[in-house]
Amino acid sequence: MKSALNFLVAAKRCEIAELQALALTSALVNVTGRLVHGLQRERGLSNLYLGSNGARFAPERQAQIGESQGIEGELRACFDSLDTDSATVGNGARLFSRIAYVLHGLDALPGLRAQIESQAWAARKATEAYVRLIAGLLAVVFEAADSASDPEISRLLVARFNFMQGKEFAGQERAAGSALFASGRADATEQQRLLHLIDSQERCLQVFAEFSSAALSALWSQNQPSATLAELERMRRVLCTATHGAALDANQSPVWFDCCSQRMDRMKVVEDQLAQELLRVCEEKIAAALRNLQSFTALSATAPRESDALSFFKDAQPGGGTMGLASTSGAAGLTPPQGYGPHLERSILELVQEQARRLQSMGDELDTVRASLNERKLVERAKGLLMAHRQLSEEEAHKTMRQMAMNQNRRLIEVAEAVLAMADVLPDRRR
Amino acid sequence: MKSALNFLVAAKRCEIAELQALALTSALVNVTGRLVHGLQRERGLSNLYLGSNGARFAPERQAQIGESQGIEGELRACFDSLDTDSATVGNGARLFSRIAYVLHGLDALPGLRAQIESQAWAARKATEAYVRLIAGLLAVVFEAADSASDPEISRLLVARFNFMQGKEFAGQERAAGSALFASGRADATEQQRLLHLIDSQERCLQVFAEFSSAALSALWSQNQPSATLAELERMRRVLCTATHGAALDANQSPVWFDCCSQRMDRMKVVEDQLAQELLRVCEEKIAAALRNLQSFTALSATAPRESDALSFFKDAQPGGGTMGLASTSGAAGLTPPQGYGPHLERSILELVQEQARRLQSMGDELDTVRASLNERKLVERAKGLLMAHRQLSEEEAHKTMRQMAMNQNRRLIEVAEAVLAMADVLPDRRR
Fold it and tell me: Exposed e or buried b for every residue in B23-56, given b needs 16+ CB within 10 A?
């Protein structure tokens, strides 16, 4: 018959297995991040190539395609190495579905490149195709962030996802700004879009700052020297404040592109550091859990089974145990049982209670991290609802919600909840 | 190299594995529920036995102990049958830890029974010992509810957990009321405790009503005939409204006990029905997923790999793909690809997109279910904080929060959030 200690050991093994799976997923996300970076560059160069009617940037683009293909091969190898047979990955169903979507997109990539090569597609259409593929890749990263049950790791994963998403908005800002400068004329709709991308980008970077370590936040600050930032903000002002129809200097297009590219390369440095930090934390936690497991198994060889039986009920006191969840993690007896040598002073009961407390506090912290992910999901969902119902673009939907929040002096998440609460009442015009 | 379809199949397999694990956990929870029911009766009879100074209810108690022991054996066998070696269960670490805690309590049960047998422990202390053990068992049920990723099943699990928790409050109400009648005198503190138990019970039953099916809610209504309910409410009124120190009719104690016991037996009927419903839903979903899986694998034999490559980008349109999560589940192209026979009209892309949409909507619904579990956790945690900081009993902490909610015209969950936000500021006197 299995004892309490058997289950303690099993619980610890599960924890270790999950951490190892996380370390594996983390490696996968690293390659995903590199492919995203490569495709972002490829998207930028394709834009310049199409913008110059094929006259310029053809070799740069070809070189970048070669690089992207190399990373794509690595990512496919990563996918291949995933254990798809034993159905054991915690978040398997969702993660695998996202990967299926990405693979479909990667299969379509040669076709997309051919359309660009022959200039059959306009810059805008090509950009949106890359945006879609990158969105699919980022969804893989998101699923990884959603699955961790260790709060420290979960915080870093949330920080990483938001940083990568912020970088993607920066990439889209680069494309939109380049096109706007190149067109030689200010356009109110495009300016609105640009503002939206800047705003979305800053929200992501703020979540990153909240959830990452102080060291990583500092690294990101260092990677944004004031001079570069001032130049970026100056060009943003020029782009966004010009009156609709006013002339823009088309020669500024490559300057803007380079300035944005520098920013994105620096973001990649921080992203890589974040990835290393994650792997380090995973490895540390695996090592700690393994040491823990050893001490458990050492104990199982010596401990008598009913040693401290009644101490289970020791602190049972009025009102202390009415709520299932509170009581199992509450202040239960921690005095070592009498009559055993020092090596048994940390009795099994203590271990069980320590484990319960630890899981509870991990669960509490995890709830906080998840809440942030959840808020994000709610805002996205409310936006989608407004888009469907009022036939709004994403920017317009976001702006509407932000306006509602300002007018009603409420947080964006509260507005989102209010919008979603109306979901059953609003007809969906898409259907 | 693995294709999109490989990962679709793998995702489906994960889904099936999770459903099967759920069906297994569900069976475990059924036995847990039966043991809880047995221990609740044992607790009641032990109370009556101790209350009569051992003069009455000894044989009834012995018979019930025998029954409890039988179910305990079944539950231990269930625990033994769990796969603790492969560390594959999704929620393994938490579930196994809860089981370790329960096993420790079960090991201590013979000691508890001996204390009661020899009347060494007072009724109140014995009751609290049973309360603690039952709380541990309900924590196992809670972990099961927390792990499901299918929203329909998750709803039923939440309904079941709350119903079982409500039944346990009913059991504690039975014990508290019996003791109060038996004491022959009204006591303000005990009356307060009783009101708190009734209130907690009703909150649980309300969550049950919100989350269970209409058929189950109806079944619960049928199992509460008006006559029985009226009698219960009459005795509740007598108990709770008597002035502190006023006389109570001690002869009403067994009448109250029987009335409450009837209620609990009827609750068990509903609980069993809920369990059957859960198993049925699990089995249906497993069967559907298996059919789905077959259609996937049939497709993989015939489908060319790059069949509908560019259709991945087909609907790529401005503004449609800027948000990673929205875009993968958004309105992507659903037109069947051209050039294949009817058996291939449902292309892989379609399947991928359908799966993405399905997972998204399941995730959305699941968030709603989890939010309810989460609110519960937050309220409990805030209560624990108040108990630690202000040295309050659980009832007092709950009452304080309810009072704050009324005064500020806010929901209990909002008050809990406010209390928790102060956590870092408040010193914890326990430490």
Answer: bbbbbbbbbbbbbbbbbbbbbbbbbbbbbeeeee
Chain A: residue whose CA lies nearest to B150: A93
Mutate to test the interface with B, among A104, A125, A199, A395 (most CBs of B within 10 A): A104
The answer to whether residues B33 and B115 belong to one domain is yes
Rounded Cα distance, A396 and A419, in Å: 15
Q: Do residues A269 and A387 share a domain?
A: no
Q: Structural domain tally of chain B?
A: 2
B204 and B55 in a common domain = yes
Q: Are A40 and A144 part of one and the same domain?
A: yes
Q: A361 and A214, same structural domain?
A: no
Answer yes or no: do A29 and A177 share one domain. Answer: yes
User: What is the reported pTM?
Assistant: 0.77
- Helices B151-183 and B226-241 cross at an angle (nearest 10°) of 50
Contact (CB, 8 A) for A148 and A285: no
Task: Render B285-310 in DSSP notation, one character per residue.
Answer: HHHHHHHHHHHHHHHHHH--TTTTGG
Question: Which of A239, A271, A288 is the last residue before a domain boundary?
Answer: A288
Give residue-wise pLDDT tens across range B278-315. Answer: 889 999 999 998 988 888 777 765 555 444 557 777 75
Q: What is the pLDDT of residue A183?
A: 86
Let me know whether B260 and B382 are in one domain.
no
- The tokens describing A341, both together, are 């040598």
What pLDDT is attached to residue B233? 95
Q: Are residues B107 and B235 in the same domain?
A: yes
Residue B154 included in any domain: yes
Q: What is the predicted pLDDT for the residue at A328? A: 32
B152 CB near a chain A CB, below 8 Å? no
* C-beta separation of B53 from B119 below 8 A: yes
Tokens 């799966």 belong to: B355
Tell me the count of A-B CB pairs closer than 8 A: 334
- Is residue A273 within 8 Å of A219, Cβ to Cβ? yes
Is B351 contained in some domain?
no
Q: How far is CA B164 from the centre of its chain?
A: 7
pLDDT for A167: 96
**Residue the block writes with tokens 């059957």:** B276
B419 in A contact zone (CB under 8 Å): no
Which domain covers residue B127, as residue numbers?
A: 4-288
Q: Mutation test of the interface with chain A: which of B313, B381, B417, choosing the one with the most A Cβ atoms within 10 A?
A: B313
Domain assignment present for A337: no
**Average pLDDT score over chain B:** 81
Domain boundary among B228, B254, B288: B288
B230 Cβ under 8 Å from any chain A Cβ: no
Angle at B295 between CA B292 and CA B301, to 5 degrees: 145
Summarize pLDDT for A63-103 with one digit per residue, the tens.
999 999 999 999 999 999 887 776 554 567 788 888 988 99
Q: Does residue A368 belong to any structural domain of this protein?
A: yes
Nearest-CB residue to A107 (from B95, B305, B377): B305
CA of A137 vs chain B CAs: smallest distance (Å): 8
Question: Nearest 5°: phi and psi at B149?
Answer: -110, 5
Q: Can you tell me the distance from the alpha carbon of B338 to that of B118, in angstroms, rounded to the nearest whole number?
A: 83
